[in-house]
Each structure stands twice: as structure tokens, then as C-alpha cells.
Amino acid sequence: MPSKSILVISDQHAPYHHIDTLDFLAAIKAKYKPDTVVNIGDEMDWHSISFHDSHPGLYSASHELEVARRFFLQLEKLFPKQYIMDSNHGSLVFRKATRYGLPHEIFKSYNSMLGVGKGWTWHEDLILKASNGQKIYFCHGKYKDVLKVAQQYGMCTVQGHYHTSFKIDYWSNPNELLWGMQVGCLINMKSLAFEYNKLQKSRPVIGTGVIIDGLPKLIPMVLKNNGRWTGKIT
Q1: Which residues contact 150 (CB under 8 A, 6 or more apart)?
Q2: How many domains would you assign to the chain?
Q3: Average pLDDT of the segment spanning 33-37
Q4: Within a domain: residue 227?
Q5: Mean pLDDT score, 74-103
Q6: How far is 62 from 149, CA to CA, in rounded Å?
Q7: Predicted TM-score (pTM) of this structure
Q8: N or C: which terminal CB in the chain sees fewer CB atoms within 10 Å?
């Protein structure tokens, strides 16, 4: 069935998500009443088992998962059904297994690992039909220029992964109008998990997006000086 209102949950990197993520998403749910929810991926950070050096001041792998599960329990109460995109952080357990020659069959499913029900399903990519008849392509992050992804796939496109990018670009030819939406992230940028950002001029944009009747809309999480959400959405 075509979707009238689609909520896109941007990269959370639990347990290093923004402290107001759940309240922010609950407010969006109340205002826009999504009938479809797409989690764009990197739902879990897995900093402890990263291919890069992990910070000694952060959680061990078991503790990281334990704390992240508390977040997912609350997120599942808000959105018991989600399409979740496979992603570089979210799939780290399976990527590590591949590196060391371990068959994926010996591991629990994503659902069991994160402590959520069967309403959450994982996908390499996803195509949904909007209420205006337009097809929309979802992926975690194919290429930094999201509009080029839309042009290559011939469909309006939504992606995450690139935390400092928060935009909607349009392109048209005589036959169609395409758009690409980049949805930012929902991380705690002060966490030691993102310490690498300190050396860069660009900073993560905290926010996400919705698609109403086939048209994209970005929703920034506007923050106060102390880094907390103002409590208002656009």
C-alpha cells in the first residue's frame, strides 16, 4: 500500500545517540503521524569493535550492547514496525565475522541481538511507493552527492551516513522531477565516540526527515546553548 507519511530516522549510533532523540522522534510522530518508518541505519555504533582504534574511556562491547538495548526498547515502543537499512556500523558484528572467517549462521539475528521484535526488519536497500505514486529509494549511503544517487537509480532517494550533510536537492528533465534527501544524524556529538570531529571544521547536523505525499521535508533538532533540544519541531 502506498505510504502517505514516511518518517526517516537518521543515524543514531546508540548508545552514543543524542539524549533527546526519543522525545524528538515522539514529537515528530505526534505531528506527522507516519504510517511508515524507515531507519536509515547505523542504529548501533559498535565503537568497541570498530576497525579503527576504540577510545579507552568508552564502553566494552558487552556494556555497549547492554546500554544500547535500553534505547532500542524505548524506540520499539514508539515504532514497533521499522524498515532498517544495513549499514557500516550496524553490521560491524557480521563484518568482523567475515574478516576472521566466521560463518554468519553462528550469530544471533539482528532482532535477537538488539532485543527487539519481528516488526523490525533489515534491508540492504528499499523501494517504497508514496501516496502520489512516486517510487522512493532508501539506502544507508551510496555516495556523498545524494542527487547523483537519485539520478543513477532513476528514483527519488533518501540516505544517511554523511553526518555533516542535511539537504534536499532537486533535478528535473522534460519527463520527471527527482529529489535527493540527506537526513543528518541523531548523535551526541560530544561523545568520545566522535572525538575525531574535533579536528574538522564541519560539525554533524542533528535532525531527520519526513516525506509527506511524496514530498521531502527536513526536521532539524534545534539545540540550546547547553546542547539540549529546545522541545520544538518545525
Answers
A1: 137, 156, 157, 171, 178, 179, 180
A2: 1
A3: 98
A4: no
A5: 92
A6: 36
A7: 0.94
A8: N
| Other CB atoms within 10 A of residue 100 CB | 6
**Rounded to an integer, what distance in angstroms lies between the CA atom of residue 90 and that of residue 5?**
25
Give me the mean pLDDT over the 54-78 stretch: 93
Give first-to-last CA distance, the chain, whole Å.
27
Contacts of 215 (CB under 8 A, 6+ apart): 132
CB 32 within 8 A of CB 25: no
User: Is 152 within the bounds of a domain?
Assistant: yes
Nearest to 126 by CA among 174, 150, 158: 158
Calpha distance 20→228 (Å, rounded): 7
Average of per-residue pLDDT values in the chain: 94
User: DSSP of 155-218, one letter per residue?
Assistant: SEEEE-S-TT-EEEEEEE-SS-EEEEEEE-B-B-TTSGGGGGGGG-S--PPBEEEEEETTEEEE
The answer as to whether 225 is a domain residue is no
**Exposure on the CB side of residue 199, measured as CA atoms within 13 A:** 2
